[in-house]
Amino acid sequence: MAANELHETAKALVAEGKGILAADESTGTIKKRFDSIGVESTEENRRAYRDLLFTTEGVEEFISGVILYDETIRQSTTDGTPFPKLLASKGIIPGIKVDTGAKPLALAEGETVTEGLDGLRERLQEYRELGARFAKWRATYSIDANRPSEYCVWVNAHALARYAALCQEAGLVPIVEPEVLMDGDHDIHASAKTTGRVLNAVYTELHDQRIDLYGTLLKPNMVLSGYDTPNRAGVDEVADTSLDEYHRHVPAAVPGIVFLSGGQSDEDATAHLNAMNAHGPHPWQLSFSYGRALQAPALKAWQGKPENVEAAQRAFYHRAKMNSAARSGLYAPEMEREAVAV
């Protein structure tokens, strides 16, 4: 793919009012989601669930792309249309998760490195043939008195850049996802410092490994207080602290920042995104790449029952619409009542 096609795909993924649905839960993660509603995690149930999300009428108004899992990109709708083809027919860009997960980092107790580089070039070629036009790779970093180590920060930055280079070679836009985990009792300032360290390393490596930043997106954590701290930072402080780190470390050449929702409630993730956009303008689009924060109400409404598909689709459509409003700083908590009124 020519460079300008990568640029256009990246820009389309952060088109005004739109964001990305992360439907790339691994088999283990989707099992936990299904366990929470008492549904067995069979291949057919997983297919049926993704089918209800992807066939939701009108959701393409708010969803620009969908990140798929290896199993999902090979599945089809009830009428036999391959999922990537269905999404593309609605103007939604299909994407694919390509890392193989965070594994223990050698000689660094309690830290992880994300694996999946071996054979990645060939896998990317296959995914492109299956219809993918972008990819995602996630690295994770924990915070405590001694973590993350410089070793962990730079090893993961190097791997993210290697992944990004292979993606661009294959004609896929890389979404680079360095996630500073918010587990712990640290305050928002510790989160900010760690997020800055991680972003500095990531963009140093992306530059050194010749990545065309105009053909990339960043999927970072929002800067939040640790989940176990009693005095959590409020919405405006989260927005201001997060923006300060991105302005310091994310080059303006990056078309968009698509946030992960990382353990936040559905409405908190929307409110934080809204506050950041309300504090604009910014050099990049601020959008969303949410998994659970877009899907949780739909999953709860579905309960694995065919007769609940329409209710689940309404719940998914509503969350997508709320986050679309947050893209422009136009979201208000009162808008949530629409879901109840439907």
If you had to describe this structure to a student in words, what would you say it looks like?
- The chain has 342 residues and is an alpha/beta fold.
- The chain has one domain (3-341): Aldolase class I (TIM Barrel, Alpha-Beta Barrel), CATH 3.20.20.
- Helix content is 46%, strand content 14%.
- The protein contains 13 helices and 10 strands.
- The chain has helices at residues 3-13, 27-35, 43-54, 70-73, 83-89, 120-129, 150-170, 188-208, 235-249, 266-278, 292-302, 309-327, 337-341, and strands at 19-22, 63-68, 93-97, 102-104, 112-114, 134-141, 173-180, 217-218, 256-259, 285-290.
- The protein has an 8-stranded parallel beta sheet. Strands 4-5 form a two-stranded antiparallel sheet.
- Helix 6 packs across helix 7, helix 9 crosses helix 10 (266-278) and helix 10 packs antiparallel against helix 11 (292-302).
- The protein is globular.
Write the layout of secondary structure elements.
Blueprint: H1 3-13, E1 19-22, H2 27-35, H3 43-54, E2 63-68, H4 70-73, H5 83-89, E3 93-97, E4 102-104, E5 112-114, H6 120-129, E6 134-141, H7 150-170, E7 173-180, H8 188-208, E8 217-218, H9 235-249, E9 256-259, H10 266-278, E10 285-290, H11 292-302, H12 309-327, H13 337-341
Parallel strand pairs: 1-2, 1-10, 2-3, 3-6, 6-7, 7-8, 9-10
Antiparallel strand pairs: 4-5
